[in-house]
Automatic annotation (TrEMBL):
Residues 552-565 have a biased composition (Acidic residues). The keyword Nucleotide-binding applies. It catalyses: ATP + H2O = ADP + phosphate + H(+). Belongs to the DEAD box helicase family. PROSITE patterns: DEAD_ATP_HELICASE, HELICASE_ATP_BIND_1, HELICASE_CTER, Q_MOTIF. It comes from the Eukaryota. Residues 145-173 form the DEAD-box RNA helicase Q domain. Its EC number is 3.6.4.13. PANTHER family: ATP-DEPENDENT RNA HELICASE DBP3 (PTHR47958). It comes from Salinomyces thailandicus. This is RNA helicase.
């Protein structure tokens, strides 16, 4: 064990890779979410066990739990294109007009959509997530306590149950009623807090009852193809995220008339056209491909769109996308009726981005923020190690053996060339790793992601930019091989990277390799560690603020609460909800029992 590894705490065994079967169904031995046993109590204190296994013992244990032997890529096959179809062509529920009012179940499809890698279980540590709510709305938004009391369409309620979402998360408690009231929404909440379902559930629920009336044409005998006339457009910054949101849409549209489609750069055009020509009510897209299609009126019209949703909104408001976004938000033949609803979601929302968001939203939009914009949470154990540049690879190798139990790990590098080098290095040492970055062709990207999700390659090396929003089950360890520099996202990027672990009440570890090249992010890093009660290493102690209770995060959240445009309503007569002593919004709603 090297000196770096000695500093690296191994995580507790509760949520480890092996505890819920590496590739799908939860292990029956895993304590349920209510199993507040002694072990859980100990985990609550976030104590991490010290390493006890040798590398050989660890490897044997890892193999027993699903680590595969390394297998070389067949790069030739990737060049030939998709062998088994792109992810966008994945199976979904196809409505048949003969169904009448109640559509039948399709057990095989149900298993695909809600089982295996898609089967989520809420972790045992929801109480470590922030619950303070800042809400600004002209009209009262009464938070829901359960999905059953939200007035949702019965089909989506059934799908929520199949997805095993037992209770709404804090962001869902407020966003669902706001969307059901027909409001434009800007919502900010921590990574892994369920923002996707927060917009998907109420939007689809509202449309399900009226789908027959609202939906566009379907191909028939006289016209074998139709153009896509979506009712909902969801725009996301990366291809992988588009596929993931499509998966959630496939689940939530199950047994409904709403047909989801996804389009992204790299998905073969012919494939996309064929899919859209079968009918499309929900369109998930990356911005470049969407504007491309908007220029082809025989393929796509935006004239029926009732909901435009921007996920990872601060990334999308980034100047690189600003032109495409302006076109999507109001260009082309976009429906500009007053009832067109706009929504924006992210875990981070710098002040500049918030100002831009206001340009696109109606004056009475509802703003919902859980905790502080850009806040990490205490379920992520953050650890910073001082490592010289030329020792980083060895260090990462050792870190992979530092966990008490093997789990999925993502290693972030700042450069594509570094990603390739680190992946090669680990592969040559027998680690089942894979990698992803924007220079890879689409087949390689989808294959790498599939291998990682399914656990065939439980170590993924990636550039940070590509990883926004990824939700992969059982990611136990994030390693920042490089820390993001302030020129390239800084602490915002760091928060998104470490947020790939410890999702929805689980715990995880984030280890960052630090040296003098990272001084520009040091102060922000220390502030984040202090806020999350994580240990500050000796070499960063001098940056610990004197008053740790009043750290200036430079995010201007307080401005929002107090200012004219503020969250919390202020003079605008808004229905402000702030946390009471119990940490739940003091708005009269009864908090769910176990959040
Ligand atoms: N109410 C719920 N109960 C249990 N699990 C849920 C619930 N809502 C969502 N989830 C699950 O939580 C996980 C994280 O959700 P999601 O990806 O939407 O997070 P997010 O807030 O968008 O994160 P990020 O900011 O990183 O994109 C998903 O696996 C999702 O299926």
């Amino acid at each position: 064990m090297s000196s770096w590894g000695a500093d690296a705490p191994a995580e507790p065994a509760d949520d480890a890779f092996g505890a819920s079967d590496a590739f799908g169904a939860p292990d029956p031995n895993e304590a349920g979410e209510d199993g507040a046993d002694a072990a859980a109590a100990e985990n609550l204190s976030l104590k991490f066990a010290t390493l006890t296994l040798s590398k050989e013992e660890f490897r044997n244990k890892a193999v027993a739990k699903g680590w595969t032997e390394t297998t070389a890529y067949d790069y030739g096959a990737f060049q030939e294109g998709f062998q088994t179809g792109s992810h966008g062509a994945s199976q979904k529920y196809e409505w048949n007009d003969e169904y009448g009012d109640v559509a039948p179940k399709i057990p095989d499809l149900e298993r695909i959509l809600f089982g295996g890698e898609f089967q989520v279980s809420k972790g045992k540590h929801m109480e470590n997530l922030p619950v303070e709510v800042a809400l600004d709305s002209e009209e009262k938004v009464a938070p829901i306590s359960t999905f059953d009391d939200a007035g949702l369409h019965p089909v989506i309620l059934e799908n929520i149950k199949l997805a095993q979402y037992s209770l709404p998360t804090p962001i869902q408690r407020y966003t669902i009623p706001a969307v059901l009231q027909g409001k434009d929404v800007v919502a900010i909440a921590q990574t892994g807090s369920g923002k996707t379902a927060a917009y998907m559930i109420p939007t689809l629920s509202k449309l399900m009852g009226k789908a027959k009336k609202l939906r566009g044409p379907r191909p028939g005998a006289s016209s074998p193809k139709v153009r896509a006339e979506p009712l909902v457009v969801i725009v996301v910054p990366t291809r992988e995220l588009a596929m993931q949101i499509f998966d959630e849409a496939r689940r939530m549209c199950y047994r409904s008339m709403l047909r989801p489609c996804v389009t992204y750069g790299g998905r073969p055009y012919a494939d996309t056209m064929d899919d859209l020509a079968q009918g499309c009510e929900i369109l998930i897209a990356t911005p470049g491909r969407l504007t491309d299609l908007m220029d082809k009126p025989h393929v796509l019209t935006m004239s029926r769109v009732k909901y435009t949703i921007i996920d990872e909104a601060d990334e999308m408001l980034n100047t690189d996308w600003s032109e495409a976004l302006a076109e999507i938000m109001g260009g082309g033949d976009t429906n500009d009726d007053a009832d067109h609803v706009y929504m924006m979601f992210s875990a981070t929302f710098p002040k500049g981005a918030r100002q831009m968001a206001r340009e696109y939203m109606s004056q009475s939009y509802v703003r919902i923020r859980i905790g502080r914009a850009g806040q990490a949470h205490k379920n992520i154990r953050q650890n910073i190690l001082y490592v010289d540049k030329d020792q980083k690879r060895e260090c990462v190798y050792d870190l992979l053996f530092s966990m008490e139990d093997p789990g999925r790990t993502i290693i972030f590098c700042n450069f594509k060339s570094e990603v390739d080098l680190v992946d090669d290095f680990l592969y040559n040492r027998g680690i089942p790793s894979t990698s992803i970055h924007s220079d890879r062709n689409q087949c390689e990207r989808e294959d790498a992601m599939r291998a990682f999700r399914q656990g065939k390659a439980p170590v993924l090396v990636a550039t940070g930019v590509s990883a926004r929003g990824w939700d992969v089950k059982d990611v136990k360890h994030i390693i920042n091989y490089d820390l993001p520099s302030c020129m390239y996202g800084g602490i915002t990027e760091y928060i998104h990277r470490i947020g790939r672990t410890a999702r929805i009440g689980h715990q995880g570890l984030a280890t960052s390799l630090y040296n003098e090249r990272n001084e520009d992010i040091a102060q922000d890093l220390v502030n984040t560690l202090v806020e999350c009660d994580c240990e500050i290493p000796e070499f960063l102690q001098h940056l610990v603020p004197e008053n740790t209770q009043e750290i200036d995060f430079g995010d201007d959240s307080e401005d929002e609460i107090e200012g004219e445009d503020g969250f919390g309503g202020g003079d605008a007569g808004g229905a402000a909800a702030v946390a009471d002593d119990s940490g739940f919004a003091a708005d009269g709603a009864v908090p769910p029992a176990d959040w």
